[in-house]
Amino acid sequence: MRHHAIQDQRDSRSTRTPPPPATSRRARELGTRAEALASAITTLHHDIQAAHDQSARRAGFRCDDAIGCAREAAGELCDTADDLDRIAAASVPGTCPIPWGACPEHGNTLTSSGGLTWCRDAGCGRTWSYDHIGLPCTEPARWTVTDQHGGTGMMCDGHALDAAKRLDGARTAPLLAARRKELA
Ligand SMILES: [Zn+2]
Ligand SMILES: [Zn+2]
């Protein structure tokens, strides 16, 4: 399906604000605490297993589950912090304003599954260890794209390529270095 206007694709820079300050740091700190909790439960489990009383040893049967839950929480919080850092990077002036990721060389050729993303272009081989499609683009804006109605948007290499393919009558022009500097 071809689109007709750049406005359909663009995330307005004025509405793109970075995540609240310190949320990424807090998520990482809570992740460290969850990891420490997992270690503390592991120690508790060893101590319970050292009991002479068989009933007391049996009472520790939930510890493995508790350790697993704490480790899972640590991992989820670490991934949350990483995503917040990527969103903050995407709100830096001069960055492509499209609110989803693309392959920097091939454009709209990505597939995400199970927290991994890869480019479907046979000769590419690029992969990302996170949902690169679901997060805003962090590539530098290098092109001005103008659609048939005169609407313009600044985009990175991959998104400009994609817009040129998909938007009826779209034209792309390199963003001048001076303009890029002004934006940054
Ligand atoms: Zn690619
Ligand atoms: Zn982009």
Provide an overview of this structure.
- This protein has 184 residues and is α+β, with helices and mostly antiparallel strands.
- It folds into two domains: 1-13 and 93-184, no CATH class; 18-90.
- Helices cover 42% and strands 12% of the residues.
- It contains five helices and six strands, in the order αααβββββαβα.
- It has helices spanning 23-49, 54-58, 63-90, 157-166, 177-183; strands at 110-113, 116-119, 127-128, 143-146, 152-155, 171-174.
- Strands 1-2-3 form a three-stranded antiparallel beta sheet, with no helix packed on it.
- Strand 4 and strand 5 form a beta hairpin.
- The protein is elongated, with a radius of gyration of 23 Å.
- The mean pLDDT is 90.
- The chain binds zinc ion (ZN) (2 copies).
- Residues 103, 105-106, 109, 119, 121, 124, 126 line the site of one zinc ion.
